[in-house]
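Troubleshooting entry. The earlier prediction with iron/sulfur cluster gave an output that would not parse, so I re-checked the input for stray whitespace and re-submitted. Clean input:
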Amino acid sequence: MTRRLYIETVGCQMNVLDSEMVVADLRKRGYELAADLAAADVILFNTCSVREQAENKTYSALGRLRSFKQRHPEKIIGVMGCMAQKDQQLVFSRAPYVDLVVGPGQLARIPDLIEAVGHGKGRQMAVSLGRTDGPVAEIRRSHETFDPLRDPTMRPTPFQAYLRIQIGCDKFCTYCIVPMTRGPEQGRPPEQILAEARVLADQGCKEITLIGQTVNSYKHASGGRTTRLSDLLYSLSEIGGVQRLKFVTNYPKDMTDDLLHAVRDLPQCSPYLHVPVQSGSNAVLARMKRGYTVEDYREMLGRIRATIPHAAVTSDFIVGFCGETEADFQQTYELVKESRFKNSFIFKYSERPGTKGAELYADDVPFEVKNRRNNELLELQNRLSEQDNQQFLGRRVEVLVEGASDRAKHRGEDAGESVQLMGRTPDDRIVVFDGQPRLIGQIIPLAIYDVAAHTLFGAVVTEHVGPPLSVLA
Ligand code: 5AD
Ligand code: SF4
């Protein structure tokens, strides 16, 4: 009998990929996706712990299932991902009707655990070891990357895919829970990555985004040879059909010249670099234990600009980190002003139990102050993003058409006639334009006639064939 699965995913690209993998794995075992939660036999929440708000939302969603589970005790409810790893038994105490708790390093066990619950064996939990719970090799083994065979129907689009090259993180920024939930940094063997990329290319995938928490720190040593991200990019660019290669997220200190040269020299590499700086104050960066100064970051940004002048650089910022003064914030503001980021993601500091930040420093910036700093920085970045986009006015860009724009989806515009579509430029700018749905999945030229902070507006370029046209003045 077919069983139906419903999965809700929050958080980063890593979570999106984990969900894709879990769904593909369960489909191989006869599951089908249910359109909504009520129609499902198994309900999974793939969770995030980076900020408290994400956790609160998950617990509220679970809370809403309390009476549902009373009415349907046979339905299986599971919590997977970072919050499962971080909270473990606490998930069962806060939501006793949850059947499964599975950390991100144990996803391969989900089918067996579902079966165990189904056979009346009670609640099941599979989590990895903590960072000090034993010998390093054992801790590493307990965090397994889960990359079974890919299923193109499970991706948001069949012509784009994430490809994991690394799991975990060893940077231990003091605010961040990720090194605890996703364990030690481990690079996947290059042979595995290349084999997976070939499968993706055979499936018609045109754009591959390599993902890792600090993707440019990727290293894999075997047979006396160390492979770096730049080496991977050269090998991947030889795979026919893959027209775009991206990678996220970068760690500023590991933005080495070999990598910048690969991005400059390989036509498939998108000139798009997400390199979060987090703060413009050296005092704050030191407390965050980011391992670089503002001067180091500026030097790196200078190298990017000198090597790949047309690259779009984006950043993340945390405002209101412990002890952040108005003067510290002003330095962040100035850094945004001078850096010409295409875009920045701005977050209010959220204290995470289990991190060094929570242990060592008081979360002492009042909420209203965090809010104000967040808004001021966002307002500045939006203004700069719009200015940055203006360079595209009247220009032609190559866009990979991803699908209907949000507006078209909202309106319920349908296939057949011209609808509002959206796509992305190689440097990750969103373009919306009117076009035939058959363009979805193609890379096409568009002429840009208007811009906003986060969107370019384009029109399909139709080449004129036939006798010359008189030019209109
Ligand atoms: N509070 C707020 N933002 C955080 N981030 C990571 N940890 C926290 C936290 N505790 C932000 C960082 C990171 C992005 C993915 O999330 O800016 O780059
Ligand atoms: Fe978290 Fe820092 Fe690792 Fe990024 S580099 S995942 S912010 S610890």
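This one parsed fine. The chain has a mean pLDDT of 95.
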